[in-house]
Amino acid sequence: MNKFFNEFKEFAVKGNIVDLAVGVVIGGAFSKIVTSLVNDIIMPVVGMATGGINFSEYKIVLKESIGSIPAVTLNVGNFLQTSVDFLIVAFCIFIFVKAINKLKFTRKKEEAVTKEENVAQTPEEVLLLRDIKDLLQKQK
């Protein structure tokens, strides 16, 4: 049982778990920003373009309310709004990942150029000795 808790402790304190927790917290905050963007900026413009329809309140009534029994509705407006939220979040994540990949590619390119410069500065005799050493190591 002690081994189990030690393994859990090692798992919980790893950098990856902490990074994941930070990502979840930032993702939650980002979600609020996107929801506000959609509700307060995008959907009013879409509503104006469609003749003043407020999509968040748009419903298709399947069965009218009877007394204290509530109506049965399809909340199409909420679904549309959530879909717009998703598309915005997906687009932002796409842009973010694309930027990170570009930075990684640029860094790898710079490292390759630096490596080539170092090879160019190394005397030819040293390069030949390295090749001979590599061949001898492969033969062993």
Strand order of the largest sheet: 1-2
Order of helices and strands: HHEEHH
Compute the separation of the termini in Å. 47 Å
Shape descriptor reads: elongated
Number of strands: 2
Q: Unreliable segments (pLDDT under 50, ≥5 consecutive)?
A: none
Q: What multimeric state do the chains show?
A: single chain
Structural class: mainly alpha
The percentage helix is: over 70%
Beta-strand residue fraction:
5-15%
The chain-level mean pLDDT equals 80
Can you characterise this structure?
The chain is elongated, with a radius of gyration of 29 Å. It is mostly helical and 140 residues long. Helix 2 (15-49) crosses helix 3 (76-121). The chain has helices spanning 2-13, 15-49, 76-121, 124-139, and strands at residues 60-63, 72-74. Strands 1-2 form a two-stranded antiparallel ribbon. 2% of the residues are buried. A hairpin with an 8-residue loop joins strand 1 and strand 2.
Brief digest:
With 140 residues, the chain is mainly alpha-helical. It is built from 4 helices and 2 strands.
Features of the shown structure:
single chain; 140 residues; mainly alpha; 4 helices; 5% strand; elongated
